[in-house]
Amino acid sequence: MQVTVEYAAQIKRAAGVARDVIELDGPCQLAEIARAVAIIHGDSFAEILLDENRQPRPSILVFMGEEQVRWDDTNLEVEDGQTITLLSPVSGG
Asked: Is the terminal CB of the chain with fewer CB neighbours within 10 Å at N or C?
């Protein structure tokens, strides 16, 4: 199955691209998507996205389509053709 992962803000800078289309074996949890793109983009990207237990950092916002969702929602499965957006919170003034 194919999933599009889009990046915004600091996550986009760290990835060096605006989006990836990744291949997965089948429907999966959001955390699996995070770990997959962390492997693609390397350690510095992984440090932003994942904690020391290789779980997605709660501070990183995640969207499935247009809807913001929670990383730990085990009722959600990413399916073929979906778009996932990762966004680091923006701060400053």
From this structure: C
